[in-house]
């Protein structure tokens, strides 16, 4: 079956806009659309047209954001779609500005597009904006229960745009399909080198509108930490994109055919990256980039005496910083890949610049950073040889809870309450965490007391709730919760130091306090104070920003027989305060 070329794309869209959510000198400007003040043709020949719409900062205009913006659009002969990218600039000496979000948003025709596709297993007929407007707003404005939708099959379902978020490493293609005519509109992102927060950063895709977005950066699942803060006259310039907006159609009725063609086009665009046609000198082509290769191995003497390959590890380049700083770095570019089964990697098509080398390994707690920064130059490959991740370790594992992969996905995720379901996620375990209201299920499952986990008896897949949340009281207030980890020791070294390692997959205005065997003491053994603003609990995420804590425990406060570690989530201002654990391990003294 052949696919028809579609060149009248704008006729199917209500709006195509670059959007900023920003703060100028502390004053909030809602969703600036960055309207241009001038237009020019950058390049034009028989095979390509590239045009530019620019906005220039006017310091005499109090309402003007202190940014120069160049919005580019490219159409290639024979291409069923168009490309767009943006160049954002803040010159030295300009006023402070905080950029919370940058995205290209499409509002498609309501009368045409009703079917949304994000991945192979996340596709469905969607409600309309009118359905949401007549629905019941739940605990926050984005979550709405559909009361009288135009499609009766959607009645009593919950709709929330955050239920369709994903990690940016997975946001390669998504969009909408129209029944009549049978056509698809797709957002294709062949690279995320210009995005903030690394490959696991979560963000929006498509949702009710019908809306589709290419999100370049945002504070979603991370809080303002992932915005771009330009202060003290800092100069900054960055290219976002290009992103490809693809349209396909056929004479049939099978949506799968259009979806599979969109995936094929996505693979084609990914293969072509970096593109050779953008005209901006700020976008380096393939021959102007470099690469980095090597082999990553892990050394953990309590797992294996010799270093072993870091299988399927994420390894990447980001601005110079400290261990783990890549996940909150916002102003530069990032380049990531995964190692093979032997730990070998090749990071290709890297922009020239100075970078740190960062990594994390599934199954290993913590982060890796190479000992020195590296300089990428055009056409050059840097071979790092074998590099060694010295895994965090003090002594042998006495017990552990979970699997260190920076998410809480392996823990127990409850069913949503009837009448608060998204039907797309009823018969799936992979996406079960995306259901609404799971935070309130904790009090239903533990009505008379908090979670108690017995080492050697309990199973974290069934007995460890996926989020350490507050408790909903009968008067609809919320209170702190204290979980217990009970474990037996057959011997204790009173002169030794034990280590409790806690890796958090997320913290949402949480507050972790830890007691060891003495919960009645007024002061905890360990206290984080309030941490995190990821909001992953409310936004149906299974992780936010990752953090670890290493707690030293002298043998003198442990005992032969039963010991209990008390984990208190002390922040209780509402239902969304809480923590998600990735992994917990108790280590004995060195041997």
Describe the structure in your own words:
This is rhamnogalacturonan endolyase. Pfam families: CBM-like, fn3_3, Rhamnogal_lyase. It comes from Nicotiana attenuata. With 591 residues, this protein is mainly β. It folds into 3 domains: 17-272, Beta-galactosidase, Chain A, domain 5, CATH 2.70.98.10; 286-390, Immunoglobulin-like, CATH 2.60.40; 397-587, Sandwich (Jelly Rolls). The strands form 8 sheets. The chain has a 9-stranded antiparallel sheet with strand order 3-4-5-6-20-15-14-8-9, covered by helices on one side. The termini are far apart.
Low-confidence stretches: 1-15
**What is the CATH topology classification name of the largest domain?**
Beta-galactosidase, Chain A, domain 5
Strand content: 35-45%
Residues in helices, as a percent range? under 10%
The backbone outline, from C-alpha atoms, is globular
Strand order, main sheet: write it out.
Answer: 3-4-5-6-20-15-14-8-9
GO cellular component, one term: extracellular region
Family: Belongs to the polysaccharide lyase 4 family.
GO molecular function, one term: rhamnogalacturonan endolyase activity
Signal peptide: 1-26
